[in-house]
Amino acid sequence: GFMRKNIFLDERITHMTDKDFSIDTKLIHAGEPNPRIKGAVSMPIFQSSNFEYEGETSYDSIRYIRLNNTPNHVALHQKLAAISGAEAALVTSSGMSAITTALLAFLKSGDHIMAHNTLYGGTADYVVHDLPEYGIEFDFFDAMNSEDWESKLKSNTKVIYIETITNPLMDVAKLDAVVQFAKKHNLVSMIDNTFASPLLFSPIKNGFDISLHSATKYLNGHSDIVAGAIMGSQAHISQVNSKLIHLGGSLDPNACFLLQRGMKTMSLRMERQCENAMEIAHFLENHPKITQVNYPGLKSSKSYENAKEFLCGFGAMISFELEGGVAVADAFIQRLEFAI
Question: Which Pfam families match (predicted)?
Answer without folding.
Answer: Cys_Met_Meta_PP (PF01053)
